[in-house]
Amino acid sequence: KKPKRPDDTCITDDHWLSSARRCPSPNQNTRPAGMPVSLVVVHGISLPPGEFGGPYIDALFTNSLDPSLHPYFLEIAGLKVSAHLLVRRDGQVVQYVPFDCRAWHAGMSCYGGQENCNDFSIGIELEGTDEIPYTERQYEALVMVLGLLEDKYPGTRGHLAGHSDIAPGRKTDPGPSFDWSHLHALRGKEHSG
């Protein structure tokens, strides 16, 4: 069936997704002057690794992760990272950085011969792992978001990559568990419906 877009969902004039829960991150800055948004990067994240549903992704992106709560958190304590959006397992969307600003999601990266993908991309984290299949609600939310982003930022049309595509050898997410063909099939239904 065709994913449904809530009638009132839009990208606001100040570059926020109207239906997303806002959780502003300090880990952002301005894009280079005159740099158009021309890429969407799909990531996968779970904190602690392999666990879902807790408050720890919000905490990581807002620099409030307590390293004493899990051994893995000690390894990432002090990281200053963010993404524009997180799509949780139930399809809930959280936004940390407005789309016109630079989120710190890609790290050392290259797309189409252009380095520093943070400068020109929007980063979307999916709550998941390389091994565990993502949920149908996540695919449906992603389809909705991608449609809105392409309408607002036409340069992103046809430019969608995984973190592993822009940082090969360094990153593996969203991993083999992410079904690109299913995403493209759902997007085809949205465009044809």
Protein described:
With 193 residues, this protein is an alpha/beta fold. 24% of the residues lie in helices and 18% in strands. It is built from 5 helices and 10 strands. A 6-stranded mixed sheet has the order 1-5-4-9-3-10. A two-stranded antiparallel ribbon has the order 2-6. Strands 7-8 form a two-stranded antiparallel sheet. Helix 3 crosses helix 5. The longest helix is centred in the C-terminal third of the chain and has 17 residues. It is globular and about 45 Å long.
Structural key phrases:
193 residues; alpha/beta; six-stranded mixed β-sheet; two-stranded antiparallel sheet; 5 helices; 10 strands
Question: How would the blueprint of this fold be written?
Answer:
Layout: E1 21-22, E2 28-30, E3 39-45, H1 56-61, H2 71-76, E4 85-87, E5 93-95, E6 101-103, E7 110-111, E8 114-115, E9 121-127, H3 136-152, E10 160-162, H4 163-166, H5 180-192
Parallel strand pairs: 1-5, 3-9, 3-10, 4-9
Antiparallel strand pairs: 2-6, 4-5, 7-8
Helix pairs in contact: 3-5
Short description:
By secondary structure, this protein is an alpha/beta fold. The chain has helices at residues 56-61, 71-76, 136-152, 163-166, 180-192; strands at 21-22, 28-30, 39-45, 85-87, 93-95, 101-103, 110-111, 114-115, 121-127, 160-162. The chain contains five helices and ten strands; from the N terminus they run E-E-E-H-H-E-E-E-E-E-E-H-E-H-H.
